[in-house]
Amino acid sequence: MLGHSHATSGALAWAGAAAALPLSILTFPVAQAGHIGTVDLVMGTFLTAGAALLPDADHPSGTISHVLGPVSHAACKVISEVSGGHRHATHSFAFVIAVTAGTWAGEHWLHRWFTLALVFFLLALAVRALNLCPPGDGIRSYGTIVILAGAGTFAMDQWISDKPSWLPFAVGLGSLAHLAGDCLTDRGCRLFWPFKLRTRIPLVDRTGNKLETWILSPLFVLGTCALLWYTIIHHP
Ligand SMILES: [Zn+2]
């Protein structure tokens, strides 16, 4: 699947979860009786969109690898080696649990700096995947990503709490949406890694097809907007 399909499916999953699930699930594992306001809902939408790119950290030529130039490329190469190649360890339920727990732990032990760094990184991924920057590998592309993600982080810094209780959920949900998308392709995913079983329901025949760009992604965006609107109207 293409980066923008993953990102928009992540946004849709977040909006759907916010509309359908009780607050205690959204804020798990903190499970505080807090309030998720409209601003949190909107921030969560962008951050879940970015998180939906995370599993492809095992892909040295994927979206995530090109997000911050040579730095992210080198990191993706290492992750690819360690995780056993594309669509192995990072495309499993174990990975979803690891990133969810990692976000929770980072928020709790490293506090606000961790939260803001994660916000910046997830926004950078979303900017890249949604093609909001010039294409290619040049400094124009990275520069635009850094400026847009930096501006977004600066804006969120005004509103986001030190330890947003919904952030671990958003990161896990984004990764889960990615796995669901990849399971619809020919190659499938090893959801139960380290077991060898491969899960696949091949509906999308080839990555990069027009169906994703002109039908799937626009529908996901429309669905996200509709669900957010519904949630904001019904849970003010
Ligand atoms: Zn993938």
UniProtKB/TrEMBL annotation:
It comes from Nocardia macrotermitis. Keywords: Membrane, Transmembrane, Transmembrane helix. The keyword Coiled coil does not apply. The lineage of its organism: Bacteria, Bacillati, Actinomycetota, Actinomycetes, Mycobacteriales. It comes from the Bacteria. The chain crosses the membrane at residues 113-130, 142-160, 214-233. The keyword NAD does not apply. This is Metal-dependent hydrolase.
